[in-house]
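User: I'm curious whether this sequence folds into something compact or stays loose and floppy. Could you predict its structure so I can see for myself?
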Amino acid sequence: MKTDHHSSVKRMWGAAFILLAAIVLCFLFVPGLFPAVFQLTGRTETGGSEGTITVLYYGDTGMDGDAVLVESNGHYILMDTGYSDNKKDVGNSTVIKTLKSMGVHDLDLYLSHYHNDHYYLMTTIMKDDFFHVGTVYLPNIEKLLAFSSKENKDAKWYEDLTRNISIDGDEWGHYAYTKIQEAIEEKRIKQVRLHQGDTFRVGDALFEVLWQEEIDKKPDPDDPDAKHMINNTSLVTRVTIGGVRYLTAGDIYKSVEQNMMDAGLDLRADILKTDHHSNPKTSNLPAFYQAVDAAWAFGTGPASDVCTDATDLSRSNYVNLKNNGQITFRIDRGEITMSARRNLRRVNCRYTDAGGNTKTKSFMFDKDQQYYLRDRMFPTGSRDWSVTDR
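Assistant: Here's the prediction. I'll summarize afterward.
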């Protein structure tokens, strides 16, 4: 009887070992069974707080828009508020319904720049009794405010400026700056005007304003490019959570990307929101992308292919809000776990680099990247490489 007992114990432990080994093998080799995990090495801290970066889906608006919720130790900040897919009942917009379903009552708000695909829901959130907004972080726009007076009404850039930033009011009926200030005053919310070099914390997450383009003088009234002043004065902010760095630069253009590189700014980050909704015509210089050297990149524009068409993604996994739906990056002790709602595709690539060395990389892409993956993933070296879908 004793021998039978010991034999059954051995069999039990043997079965448990086999089961454990099977679980480990599934984790390592069965694609799609677990969310995509990218383990960062060499650039993260061993300690640090966990947190999440959630790229909120804002519905089928046909518009670009940013709304990124950052969480650290139960503290939240919404970085831009996205666009509304329900203009008849803005309070029932997808972004607001998502925040409520997540139980986000207490939060701060951050605005990168004054365009409505970034500020559209800001006053609605501040006035909704479900939410308690602690602090609103706004970009410094002293010079833009000065330019928005009606004395500049004949300038080609006047309409774009005054429809978003207005002192005197304007014929289009847009008073975004005024409405935001009125909501802040009505709800008695703390307001912080951010300048280059400023830092602040939400939970244990550190926010650093790395850059805000300076306007040296009033633009030429006949300069059509000056209408993009608001985009180019977007705050460029790096967020550090648990040793992982996230870089967000609003809608800056290539000229600002180049200015930051020329200034020798350390732009390295592990997660990047591609500039100006991944637009390759206005933004996302390949050199800028390489300077950031991100492990993950995401876009918030309606087209999925423009980022890979414009940049070297030979290091980055790329996902896009319009194709993948809500995207979440979970951060814990330097490890990033990405999950998305739909359309993910895992690709293993074996390729030959410029030095003749055979290498293999694994990427997580949205499904619509197939054509651009082959042409753009490895812009240098041999194109003789194989792709295996998993």
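Summary: Residues 2-29 form the longest helix (28 residues). The chain is about 25% helix and 25% strand.
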